[in-house]
């Protein structure tokens, strides 16, 4: 069976420009069955989410340093408290964190997906989709009607993932981070 991801994918964004990216099938891929999505536990996972995000930023040549903007990664258990926010990690078969994601309840049925990152060697194996599904399940359990997210314009693999999960590209912004990163905004309505 030919994977739908084995062809060139073109995405048209709000600025009217189309971007094409051939799929890189040379990267290692982990089997989805060996990945577990579990709630973040400080004692067990420590700074592993920080390390995942740092590795992804390094891969893209982005600066990544401890700052107030990244405080949620330094202490996910505080920022995603289990009442208005939740954080999960993707673990491989030996318990190493290979991905992470957060979601917050912004009120009135609006939720925001945060910090979806998956290590390069694990991508295209289902971890990202399983993390998104965990976010959907968590948000639905708390009466989500609409979900938003923002993603750096360079994270094209993530954009395809979001579009495949029913999000639509709805805006552009400069992120409130120290670097004023350029980001696409995505939105998805739930019934």
Describe this protein's structure:
- The model is unreliable at 1-30 (pLDDT under 50).
- The N and C termini lie far apart (33 Å).
- This protein is α+β, with helices and mostly antiparallel strands and 191 residues long.
- The protein has a domain at 29-143: Aminopeptidase (3-Layer(aba) Sandwich), CATH 3.40.630.
- The strands form 2 sheets. It has a 7-stranded mixed beta sheet with strand order 3-4-5-6-7-9-8, with helices on both faces.
- The protein has helices at 42-45, 48-60, 71-74, 76-79, 127-140, 156-164, and strands at 9-12, 18-21, 36-39, 85-91, 97-107, 110-118, 146-152, 168-174, 182-189.
- The radius of gyration is 16 Å and the shape is globular.
For CATH, the homologous superfamily of the domain at 29-143 is named as Gcn5-related N-acetyltransferase (GNAT)
Order of helices and strands: EEEHHHHEEEHEHEE
Q: How many DSSP E strands?
A: 9
- Radius of gyration from the alpha-carbon trace, in angstroms: 16 Å
Give the low-confidence spans: 1-30
Helix proportion: 25-40%
The rounded distance between the terminal residues' Cα atoms is 33 Å
Give the helix tally: 6
Structural class of the secondary structure composition?
Answer: alpha+beta
User: CATH topology of the domain at 29-143, what is it called?
Assistant: Aminopeptidase
How many strands, what sense, and barrel or not for the largest sheet?
Answer: 7 strands, mixed
Gross geometry: globular
Strand order of the largest sheet: 3-4-5-6-7-9-8
Report the portion of residues in β strands: 25-35%
Mean pLDDT: 84
CATH architecture of the domain at 29-143: 3-Layer(aba) Sandwich
CATH class of the domain at 29-143: Alpha Beta
